[in-house]
C-alpha cells in the first residue's frame, strides 16, 4: 500500500496570519493598487480631494475653535498646532474605517478563492496611508515656509514613532472590527462612534494642560487619557512640529510621566494586535459563508 507524505501540504483555507503578508507580497501590491485606483474613479477632482477634505476640515475647526472660541490667543501658532494634530487623527479615522469594511467590500474575492484574509485590511490601511501623504506634505510645507520649522533628527524620529504607533494600533483594531463586520454589520456604526471619540479625545482642539487641570482630583483619568495611542501620537507630532516653532515661554513641554504614558500606549497597541489577530483568525473560517 502506497503512503503519501502530507507534510508538504497545508490545510486549505488556513495560513499563518500576518506572517503570510510577506509571503504574498505580490498580491498585497495588487490589492493596494486596486484600492488606490478605485478610490477616486470617475471623480472630477480625483486625487485633489486628498487636499480639499482636510483643508476644509482645518478651516472649519480653526474658525470655530481658533477664532470664535479664541483658542488662538492661548496657543501661539495655533494653526500649526491644530494642523499637526488633525493629520494624525485623520489618518486614524480613514484607515480604521477602510480596514473595517475591507473584507465586506472584497467579498467576491473572499468567496471564490483563498488568499490570506489579512491582506485586505492591510491593503486598506496602506491605501489610506498613501492618501495621507499629501496631507503630511502640506503640513511640512506650511511648517517650513510659514512657521520657520527646521527639521532635526529628533523631530523626524518623533514623526516616525508617532506614525508607527498609530498604524500598529489601527492594524490591531482594524483586524478585530473587520472580522466583526462580516457577521455583524452593526460594527460599522460602532466604528463611526469610535471615530468621533478619537477626534475629540485627542489634544488637537485643546491642549493636554486643560485636561490635566480639570483632572486634578482624579489624576487616573488623565493617565488613562494619555495612555491612548492616538493621543501619544498627536503629542509626538506636536513636539516635532509645533514646540520647536514657538517661544520657550509658550511651549507646553511633555506631559508629566510621559515615558510611562508612551509605554502604556505601546502596550495597548501590541495588545490590540494580538487580540485583533486572534479574533480575525477565529472568524475567518466562516467569512465565505457569512458573506
Automatic annotation (TrEMBL):
Residues in ABC transmembrane type-2 domain copies: 45-283
Membrane topology type: Multi-pass membrane protein
PROSITE patterns in the record: ABC_TM2
Keywords: Cell inner membrane, Cell membrane, Membrane, Transmembrane, Transmembrane helix, Transport
Pfam families (alphabetical): ABC2_membrane (PF01061)
Location in or out of the cell: Cell inner membrane; Cell membrane
Protein origin, superkingdom: Bacteria
Residue intervals passing through the bilayer: 44-68, 80-99, 119-147, 153-177, 220-238, 258-280
Entry similarity comment: Belongs to the ABC-2 integral membrane protein family.
The name this protein goes by in its record: Transport permease protein
Amino acid at each position: 500500500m502506497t503512503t503519501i507524505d502530507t507534510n508538504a501540504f497545508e490545510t486549505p483555507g488556513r495560513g499563518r496570519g500576518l506572517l503570510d503578508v510577506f509571503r504574498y507580497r505580490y498580491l498585497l501590491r495588487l490589492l493596494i493598487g486596486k484600492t488606490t485606483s478605485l478610490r477616486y474613479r470617475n471623480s472630477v477632482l480625483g486625487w485633489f480631494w486628498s487636499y480639499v477634505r482636510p483643508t476644509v476640515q482645518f478651516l472649519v475647526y480653526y474658525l470655530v475653535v481658533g477664532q470664535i472660541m479664541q483658542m488662538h490667543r492661548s496657543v501661539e501658532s495655533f494653526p500649526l498646532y491644530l494642523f499637526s494634530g488633525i493629520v494624525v487623527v485623520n489618518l486614524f479615522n480613514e484607515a480604521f474605517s477602510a480596514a473595517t469594511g475591507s473584507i465586506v467590500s472584497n467579498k467576491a474575492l473572499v468567496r471564490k478563492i483563498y488568499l490570506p484574509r489579512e491582506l485586505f485590511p492591510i491593503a486598506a490601511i496602506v491605501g489610506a496611508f498613501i492618501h495621507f501623504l499629501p496631507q503630511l506634505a502640506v503640513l511640512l510645507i506650511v511648517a517650513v515656509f510659514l512657521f520657520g520649522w527646521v527639521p532635526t533628527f529628533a523631530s523626524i524620529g518623533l514623526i516616525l514613532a508617532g506614525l508607527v504607533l498609530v498604524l500598529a494600533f489601527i492594524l490591531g483594531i482594524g483586524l478585530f472590527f473587520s472580522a466583526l463586520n462580516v457577521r455583524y454589520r452593526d460594527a460599522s456604526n460602532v466604528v463611526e462612534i469610535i471615530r468621533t471619540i478619537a477626534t475629540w479625545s485627542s489634544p488637537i482642539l485643546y491642549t493636554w494642560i486643560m485636561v490635566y487641570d480639570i483632572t486634578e482630583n482624579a489624576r487616573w483619568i488623565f493617565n488613562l487619557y494619555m495612555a491612548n495611542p492616538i493621543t501619544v501620537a498627536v503629542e509626538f507630532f506636536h513636539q516635532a512640529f509645533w514646540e520647536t516653532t514657538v517661544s520657550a515661554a509658550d511651549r507646553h513641554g511633555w506631559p508629566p510621566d510621559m515615558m510611562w504614558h508612551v509605554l502604556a500606549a505601546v502596550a495597548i497597541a501590541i495588545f490590540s494586535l494580538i487580540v485583533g489577530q486572534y479574533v480575525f483568525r477565529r472568524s475567518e473560517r466562516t467569512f465565505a459563508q457569512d458573506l
